[in-house]
Description:
The complex is a heterodimer of chains A (366) and B (450).
Chain A: H1 29-39, H2 41-51, H3 53-77, H4 88-98, H5 106-120, H6 134-145, H7 147-150, E1 153-154, E2 169-170, H8 173-182, H9 184-193, H10 197-205, H11 209-214, H12 227-239, H13 246-263, H14 266-274, H15 278-285, H16 296-316, H17 323-340, H18 356-365
Helix pairs in contact in A: 1-4, 1-12, 2-3, 2-12, 3-4, 3-5, 4-5, 4-6, 5-6, 6-17, 8-10, 12-15, 13-14, 13-15, 13-16, 16-17
Chain B: E1 24-26, E2 32-36, E3 46-47, E4 54-55, E5 60-63, E6 72-73, E7 78-87, E8 93-101, H1 122-131, H2 144-147, E9 158-163, H3 172-179, H4 181-195, E10 199-205, H5 209-218, E11 225-230, H6 239-247, E12 262-266, H7 267-279, E13 285-291, E14 299-304, H8 309-315, E15 327-330, E16 337-339, E17 352-356, H9 358-361, H10 374-378, H11 385-393, H12 397-402, H13 413-417, H14 424-449
Parallel strand pairs in B: 1-14, 9-10, 9-12, 10-11, 13-17
Antiparallel strand pairs in B: 2-8, 3-5, 4-7, 5-6, 7-8, 13-14, 15-16, 15-17
Helix pairs in contact in B: 1-4, 3-5, 4-7, 11-14
Amino acid sequence: MSENNEYPQITAKNLIVNNSPHIQSPVTISSIMWEVNLALLPVIAMAVYNFGIRAFLIILLSVLGSVFAEYFIQTNLRRIPTTISDGSAVLTGTLLALCLPVAIPLWIAFLGGFIAIALGKQVYGGLGQNIFNPAHVARAILLASWPVYMNTWLKPGLGTNISTVDAVTTATPLGLLKEVAKNSDKVAELAKSGQSIIQYIFETLNINFSDMLLGLKIGGSLGETSKLAIILGAFYLLIRKHINLYAPGAMFATVFVGAYIYGGDADYAMFHLLAGGLFLGAFFMVTDMVTSPITPLGKMIFGFGCGAITLLIRLKGGYPEGVCYSILIMNAFVPLIDKFCKPRRFGVVKPKVESVEAQKDKGASK
Amino acid sequence: MLAPKTFSGGIHPPAMKKTSSKAIVKLPLPDKVVLHLSQHIGAPAKCNFQINDKVIYGQILAEAGGFVSAPVHATVSGRIIAFGNFKHPLGQSTPAVVIERDKEAQEPIYTEKPIKGISLPPAEIMKRIKDAGIVGLGGAAFPTHVKLSPPAGVVIDTVILNGAECEPCLTSDHRTLLEQPEKVVDGLKLVMKVLNAKRGYIAIEDNKEDAIQVVDSVVNEAFGIDVQPLVTKYPQGGEKQLIKAVTGREVPNGKLPSDVGVVVMNVTTAAAVSDAVNYCMPLTEKTVTLAGECVKNPGNYRVRIGTTISDFIQMTGGLKEDVPLKKVILGGPMMGFALYDLNTPIIKGTSGILCWSEKEAQMKPRTGCLRCGKCVEACPMGLEPLILDALINAKRFEEAEKEGLLNCVNCGCCAYSCPGGNPLVQNFIVAKNKILADKKKQAAAKDNKK
């Protein structure tokens, strides 16, 4: 029948046949991971500016430890294709390094990076399977294993030496707050002189709120001191829609309101907001896709829990800072939160049939 | 004009509607047509002809095989040269009739003696729609006369014409709205008369500003018809999402639009209804968008139903020689079907054919689940695709069903948005078929016991 056909038959071979959809969004796991890495660049830059070249070495070694662990475990133990190029191991290593003090020995940075991937991620089955934030798992292990190294804080801006011999140690604002709060004589003395505890800390450390925002003269972990750099990175991720404000917003609000109620004044609440690792934790750890709840309500509950536990540890616990542990604790509740915070399903509630006239009236009144 | 409306969830895929400025071109007649007896949902049509019988254009070739069925008409005049199983666009081979066109034969002209269809009694309008073999032309191909016969006691107060055309690449509805707005509005009036519905909406996504303007200038306010602009978002044209956006009513799971007093119909179906009632014209032609990097002349074409896709592409000027064809999609890229054989004919529900090059057909590699929740955000049915996927992979079908698997509308938003490239909706379709088949088996076993 086709001999005298005007239109010759098209013979197409090896056509791809698969189920719809036939298009996909350009976003990939790798692109998300590298974009988060990109968002951390201002934080890294501030870390190097504040703490010198040693900060860069710590970040580098931590990343190397992470990437090495990922590569080694995937190729030698799990015998699967390695995924080190997707940027997730690099991100874990970077995040861990940003939670470390600059004075730690360099080998601890490498070991920490290795632990983060080995015990924080690959042991669960790799990307997307881990319950706890890998960087914080490693930080918790390092803190428990080498508490002195992990609590030695150097004054920023003093020398860019790789060696830490001539460096000057300092207290972190939260560390000083804890020290003062524990010392009842000091508290009584401050109460008598009429000076607030925050004023005392600012005077002792010679800092103010704008220093805390910029992170120039503050002791602390590499990446947590400059809030401005963190906000810059977070802003980029918000625009790119890789994170949203549900969880960080709830965490900030909880810490601020809780501290306000406890301390009784706005300065005190503001101090808790800007001190320590709250910003880094809230924007880069609490928003970790793998270890946070899925729905907006779940994220808010998660953020609230993180904020509440952070404050509880800061005010009543043994450690001056509680962001790391609060996030780890709340990570454990994520499956439970997810179970109870489901999205509203379409077509489940029996609908009322409104008359069209009523509908139109409503529309018109809008 | 009304303010744009929308639903919750959904995605914003690239529009890729490069053929929206191309006017509909009527193609020459094909030398042969392959007419499937099953071009609609429901019982296949029954053909009473023998091989070598002569048929005339527009003659009923196969009668409706039941109430939920539709007749199939000869789309060219000629001789029946074959009966048998031929490739159906949905994959399987199903019974079809092949007609070879008689090049000398004159075709009856239907448009000569128009009648004012709107003055006809509803029963006559309904009969003409049924006799013309009209089915939902948006793709689902549900027989239109069945849609227009709601069960006793069900009151339909609203008819929505679906001109959202939310699928990327497709522009045939858009062109129909631009070129035949009177026909579309007339079809809506006829349908509203049959259903005795008071309100009519022509819902159009707001990326088709020109179509909204044109149709708005044609609609008759007194008749209770409005143009309803919609926010441009996929799947805005999904039946349940469309009803929710336009009327605020939510079709309960397992129920039909008629349960909330609404009938939804594609704009091109309405145009066909107008022709069927005013001219007694059977459904023999279809407006099809041809697009993709591999075709020489992408555009919108009016083509006889039953034309094979190979003939169709050749009639429009063929494929580019220098761009190898890698994928052929029948329908849009979100819910269309990939073809492996270009001898497949165009059926009543075909709205677009995409001929894609390797670059266009590229898919990203699967890299696992990040629990990012983008699929949950995208799901217009409020499901959690990542959880459904995990349950299905663990073969925990009952739990997946409890999580709402059977509410999935196959829109593909989850798989589109997944950064890990996971085949989510694909997995769900397989699992749903399995669950439904198991249920059937169980019901059958129960019946046997009785």
